[in-house]
Structure formats: structure tokens, C-alpha cells
């Protein structure tokens, strides 16, 4: 049965409670930390050796689509009415609006140590201890807007500029690709300081704290953010009918990206599914 992912701002009080309760139960069962470890393991950068499956690569979108489905499956085993809501950061831009309310994700970290002290994921509540990460510390951290180097959330027009590109991705298939929807959405920009971050990447940096780097899954905001990113792939497909995931074929011998990116029909680790199999989600879920 096809289920629906809703805008987080439209959730009823009961839907908010059920989502939070399911997240906390997945954490209590130990499953949540497995998702954190997986994301850390597959956060492979341009300069690292080997295959890039999750970031700085064409498979950024299908990899995270599958990742979302795995988390959603865990949530729905707890409560079959739950799906991952999406946070539209082009519209809900306040530090006190959804999803940063006490009954959802809680708010910003305190100035002294960036610790989140409000909401169900605050350390003091006893249900959300950080056990997997790239930095020390047991409590969830955030630093909205990065006050030491201020930046704002991406605008609707900035997102639309990515959606306008009719090409999915282009050589060299990494963070330096200047053409293609994927890299414009993922947000590896060009230039110093905040100019280097766009769309998806800038949202991670705006939230700050644990949302920076491979351990970003420690913040439940990760999933609401990536659900919105996933929605943009669907919108891009609707805007450019017939446009497909690229590359269609793997880069050949002698190409610097040989065996470093996943082609349309190749398997993505760790699941063994292909980007092609992830292009259409209509039989599983839809967006409201």
C-alpha cells in the first residue's frame, strides 16, 4: 500500500507524537545507531580512494532515497502509520518554527556548548545519547545560522536554479561538476567561505553541530532535510520528462572516475540495489 510523506508543518499533534515516539523506539532498540555508522562509513570524499556511493557522486540521490526507506521501514515496524515528514527550508526558515518546536525536534543548542536542551531529543530527557560519531560527546548539538560565520538557509530561487538544469549529472561526476542537477542540489559550490555551500550542503551547515559531516544522522533533522531533498528529485523528473540518472554507463579504463562512481545499472553498496531501481518511488510512497 502506498503511503504519504507530509510537509512537517501540516502534521497534527497526534502525528507529531507518533513520529517522535517511533524515532525514540528505533533508537532504544539500537537500530538507529546502525544508521549513523552506515552514513559515516559511506561518507567518502573526492580525495579518498575507492568508490563514492553516498556523497560527491551521482548516486547521492538514489543512495539517500534507499537510506530513507531503510529508516522509514524501521519506524513503520514500530508504528505502521508513521512516515518521514519533510522540512521545506525554503519556507519554514525561522529558528522557532517547525520543525524546531518542543514537541518535534527541539530547538537550537545553547551558546556555551551547543547542547540541545529542549524537545524529546535533548540529552537530559535520557532517550537520545550519542554513541556513534566523529567527535566526542554524548549530547546532541546544534548551532543555527553559524553565528561565527553567519549564513542563511537557501531560498526558493536558489533551489529552483538547481531544478532548472535538465541534465542529471556530468563529468567529472564529483563535487567539482559545474553542470548537472545533482551537484547543484547537493550543493558543492565554488569560491571561499559560505559561497562554497549551496542548497543541501548549506542546510547542514546552517543547522550546525552534529549536522556537520558524516555523523549528521545523529540529528533527527537529517531525515526531514533529506526527505525534502528527495522530493526535489521527484520535482526535477516532473519538470524534465524523460531525463534519467547519469552516467548511464560506468566511466571507462583510464578515466579518473573509473570504478569510483555508480552507473545507472550498477549496484550501490551496501544494499545491492541500482540507481535505476530507485528512480521511481510511486509504488511505495508519494508526497503530499
Give an overview in words.
Helices cover 32% and strands 2% of the residues. The protein contains eight helices and two strands. It has one domain: di-copper center containing domain from catechol oxidase (Orthogonal Bundle). The chain starts with a strand and ends with a strand. The longest helix has 19 residues. It is an all-alpha fold. A two-stranded parallel ribbon has the order 1-2.
Summary tags:
mainly alpha; di-copper center containing domain from catechol oxidase; globular; 288 residues; 32% helix; 8 helices
Give the topology.
Layout: E1 3-5, H1 13-28, H2 31-41, H3 60-78, H4 156-163, H5 181-186, H6 199-207, H7 221-239, H8 275-278, E2 285-287
Parallel strand pairs: 1-2
Helix pairs in contact: 1-3, 3-7
